[in-house]
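Recap slide: Succinate CoA transferase, sequence and predicted structure.
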Amino acid sequence: MYEDRIRRPALMNKLMSAEQATLLFKDGMTVGMSGFTRAGDAKALPAALVERARSTPLHLTLLTGASLGNDSDGLMANAGVVARRMPFQADAALRRKINSGEVMFIDQHLSETAEQLRSGDLKAVDIAVIEAVAITADGGIIPTMSVGNTANFVQQAAKVIVEINLSAPLALEGFHDIYVPGARPHREAIPLLTPLQRIGTAAIAVPPERIAAIVITDSPDSPSNALPPDDETDAIARHVITFLEGEVRAGRMDASLRPLQAGIGTIANAVLHGLIDSPFHNMTMYSEVLQDSAIELLDSGQLKMASASSITLSATMHEKFIRNIERYRERIVLRPQEISNHPEIVRRLGIIALNTALEFDIYGNVNSTHVGGTHMMNGIGGSGDFARNGQLSIFVSKSVAKDGAISSVVPFAAHVDHTEHDVDVLVSEWGLADLRGLAPRERAPLIIEHCAHPDYRPQLLAYFEAAKLGGGQTPHVLEQALSWHARYQREGSMLVK
């Protein structure tokens, strides 16, 4: 019945229900699940594990590529299945468990998880749960809409459970380029010189005897939850485009720019959307995730090709992508995330990195993860991989949140994910601050003038003037540095009335 999906006949006797497959799990195991930003995640096993946990205690360390779809993270967290989680998540229920201390969350650069597994710094994966289009005749696993850490989980796991998703078209075969670096210390250089290049295989190699179960599903990925562009994100896009036009005029790049990376989410998606009306052409992407804007740029012809680890689309765009999938096969490459985010390649290609900040301070330090400095939002994701190693590191944010009660530009970031040394450009709807070649004392007035909301500029300037009286390379009034966050907790607004 599934010969086109399970092409090795001997594996047909591994077919079973998700409920039967849960019997392979034991309390305390480390489990690697496919999935990267709501794409390519296992659909049946998470729900079946939740049901099993109702009668049998089951506490797992859960590793993925990035966030899961179908509310799986939250369902498993609420059922007590997830005791430890890494390297990224984006689920409100799981977030509450993390911030209450019930789930131990390890926030990692997305390029590092596979390396730490390979070197034994993390406990080895016991079971890998992988969504697939098909299993090849030699036992290779063809992923669906993401690769993430899947290849590394399969390489390590004693047992592999494959979820064959019938909703994933067979035409996805050929999109993937699976390359796993060799062992240290004699690893060869990764031979990737252009975003379009393919250096690996179309399927994930696995000894067939390690495939312990095959589960059939028929469920699409959860759609992207990125919001459409608005006036503020349109303004941010215009500032970025004007800046890049200046880079072309200065001769630092041509009209094809450098390969683009854009973080997941509404603002980054909207900025890329703005490039549709830009003068740039023959562009390329070397990123983690392709969102709606990437498909729109491919369709417009301005984007020549795109390389990533995941494709995460709205329901409408996903339908269009599947309907026209053959058009994209030679223009999109999906890679393991340790390759899509690898510092060696990011530095080699000269990536233009575009990522979102929760807040940044007057010297250019960026907080991407912790609300109020204490409560985890989603995680650092791959922003650090690209910010530290790209040719240009651009961070974008709306200037205020909570209807103006929170300023995204503060005297001192309450948590620092990206230091001033890794940040080249800051952008809000009010303007853009090019920080390259500037000392901290030169950065502060520029950030305040160009990026802060007008309501907060007087407060920021007053703080900076007071801080300079105390001297220092990076002046601060230490007893006031986090007072804005304390004021918000106490009074519900950072703004001095």
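Residues 231-249 form the longest helix (19 residues).
The radius of gyration is 23 Å.
(End of recap.)
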